[in-house]
Amino acid sequence: MPITVPKPWGQEIILTDPNLPYTGKIATTKAGHRWSLQYHDQKTETLILLSGQGQLTLNDQTINMEINRGYHILPMTKHRFQAITDSTTIEISTPETGTTFRLEDDYHRSNETSEIRNSPNRGWHAD
Predict the structure, then answer these.
(1) What is the signed CA dihedral for 7, 55, 65, 77, rounded to 10 degrees?
(2) What is the DSSP secondary-structure string of 32-69?
(3) Which residue in 16, 32, 44, 51 is a FRET match for 24, CA 20 to 30 A apart?
(4) What letter would DSSP give residue 119?
């Protein structure tokens, strides 16, 4: 059942069936890499650092994350995770609906819509 999705910064494993009213993921992020600076128009999530060292940007504030502490991210909140060392995070969220708007992306990925989300590797291809 779990689905592994390669990402330019590492990978994520989607643990839950897409028909459930929630989503659970485990992500591994390589040291020095970061996710998009993004916001969601519909999704609410909680991000937890399980191992490693990472920073979380929430709107205009960047904080050093604490292991096993949940960081709640509401829709329309700009956010970005950056791995200082190889890191593992878990994300628990509402269903992945709506659009993820990427304001900045080191890998030149476009916004993630339902169509992209349902395509192989969520539209990202290592070239």
Answers:
(1) -80
(2) T-B--EEEESS--EEEEEEES-EEEEETTEEEEPPBT-
(3) 32
(4) S
